[in-house]
Write a structure and sequence with these properties.
The protein contains five helices and two strands, in the order αααββαα. Strands 1-2 form a two-stranded antiparallel ribbon. β1 and β2 form a beta hairpin. The longest helix has 27 residues. It is extended.
Length: about 100
């Protein structure tokens, strides 16, 4: 039982790492990525890439256009705005704008 728990934690950590890698790649490509392009960049199979992107689209974290290219969804912008509220942006920027 102990080994199964450890394997599940490793599998989840690996999945999370791949998810973050996919987010980074989508963010780096504002014109979007196809399933094949993401698979090549992540060095994974097209089927794995397809399942990952489909899950992201279903979860509202990515969008797919008519040309089957994938982009980060505006949900990330919403999260970024919420995170930025914690920062004293004006205090950080003031020395650089005066």
């Amino acid at each position: 039982m102990k080994e199964t728990w450890f394997l599940n934690i490793n599998a989840m950590a690996n999945a999370l790492s791949r998810l973050i890698q996919a987010f980074d790649l989508l963010a780096e490509h504002p014109r979007g990525l196809s399933v094949t392009e993401l698979a090549e960049k992540m060095r994974t199979s097209k089927s794995t890439s397809s399942r990952l992107l489909a899950s992201l689209v279903e979860g509202g974290l990515a969008e797919r256009d008519d040309a089957q290219r994938h982009f980060l969804d505006v949900r990330f912008w919403t999260w970024g705005v919420q995170a930025a509220r914690r920062l004293a942006v004006l205090d950080i920027a003031r020395p650089h704008i005066a």
